[in-house]
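ok trying this again, last paste got cut off
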Amino acid sequence: MKKNIFRNAALLLFGFLVLACNEDFLETTPLTEVGDASVWTDVKLAEAAVLDLYQGTWAGTLTREETTDAFTDQAVFTHPGRGVDGYTEGKMNPAGNFMDMQWFSWPQLYPFIRSANIAIQKLTINEAEMDAALVNRLLGEAYFMRGYYYTQLMRQFGGVVLLTEPLTLDSEANNPRATFAETVSQILSDLDRAIDLLEEAPRDPARADKITALAMKSRVLTHVASDLYEPSKASSVSTIASYSNPELIGWTSGSQLQRWEAAKAASKTLLDATTGYKLDYTAPASQEEAIQNYEDIWLQGDQNQDFIWGRLVEEFGFGSRTYPGGDGWSQGPGMVALYHGPNGYHEWAGTTPTEALVSKYDFADGTKFDWDNPAHAAAPYDNREARFYSTFLYDGGAWKQRTDDVVKFDKFNEIQTGFYTLSDGTIINGVDTRQGPIEDWNGSRTGYYFRKFVDPNQPASWPNDLQKVDAPYIRYTEVLLNYVEANINTNDEGEAITWLNKLRFRNGLPAVTASGSALLELYKRERDKELVNEDARLFDMKRWLEGPQSLNKQVQQILIQATQKPGTTVADYRKDTSLFDYEYRPTNIVFENRVWQDHVYFMPIKQEEIDKDPSIIQNPGY
């Protein structure tokens, strides 16, 4: 057994006891004296142990400056030296010289799997000593979380070491990787078990319940039906085609069509089991209404019908254990504005949108945006689709009240990511640029910032009054999109278009008229836009074999030059086409030397793990 995988297991157990056990227990029994038997016979301690399994979910979207979109064409991480370029430049290697984010870390996720195994074993043994409904709920959550962590590993590595019993530190080092098919089978078994056990569990957006498990099953089956795992499609990838153990990274038998049928059925089960948000339009919503619809979904958080499961800022569903999203320093979704906002608001521009992402957004009438069209290029931020205005902060866009020390540079509370030349030759560097007067090292490299997941009514006053915006891990809309994709791949375009139009109408876009390959392309870009910064694009670009399309190009910034018109008077600069002529020019920047390498379709297993257990076979290309 790879001993380093489990070296912190005991510390994890006592860590969650310190965080989550009740005050009465603290008053009667020192934590250092808590025995294993006490944990699994005491209702509150047992629940605390299961709730600790959720700690590993905090490593995904919105919990740090580097979102997974920064590993794709959709965004870039502003600050060098964090290891993101290990992926975007294809430098991943088994020595581990890359960013060890938990969402792709083999050794960081296995302790949670071990904890889930312990919970399943102990709850099964002791179920007669506790309320049956509670045992079913806790067991269901443990099975769900084990399936969730194996899903995270499967989406990065393919087949992985499958452990379903709590091995000990002195176990033998002989646990080879399961095949991809075996890994998927184990995940689906865990999710099906969770669905059964959670049948009567109360709906809880911070904890797993039946709806959560159904949604996760849709995600898994959609993922594994995709081209990355289908030999007839993946053979176009050099490292996959030459790999000597194809059973570890994909299917070696069965029908892709049947897998898409399974994904379709799972997605429809969830769609029928609950409801989404404002999917009953019969024509496109107005622009104003559509903007509000999209903002509602993430500003309302767990109060919105679209929210299935995620991290709740205020209480996270753990009783007295709260997540500080208000005053004081915190981590995660309470920090989103600070992590990704403009330097002109004393924020950090951690992950910022690329022009490649911005260009995916159509005009409000459904016309595609095209920089080669002079009319489009002259006014690129006018009349774009509703989600554009809910997702981005762009030059001239209205935003929050500036802090007192910045008002002298911007009296109108507009984003300034351009360079403005006055009639006397004076050049004003926008306050939100890397050449601006406020913390220029935190300026965007692309000329854009993310607005999505930022509370527009929360003052920019870090470090106090941090925002309270929940982070979704999975939404109803993702499952709707999964269902559309499955229908396209099973040649039921009519059903696909019906459901895709529900989403487009909510977002103010016209009905779909495309078919065939054009419909699939429209769907993919619709998914990209809808799920920005929700841990989707990285996995989608891989499963669609779009790695080269995503990363074989350099990041572009938008250069904005404004020149004051002759005979006009300007006291304080603001965006005004009656006073300035504007020129917009997408330009490559020299920052990351982005290049796609086929081997990063799968992550490398750290060599230290293989050294501990030589039965583990490395992934292709490493």
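PB: full thing came through this time. Residues 280 and 502 are 7 Å apart (CA to CA).
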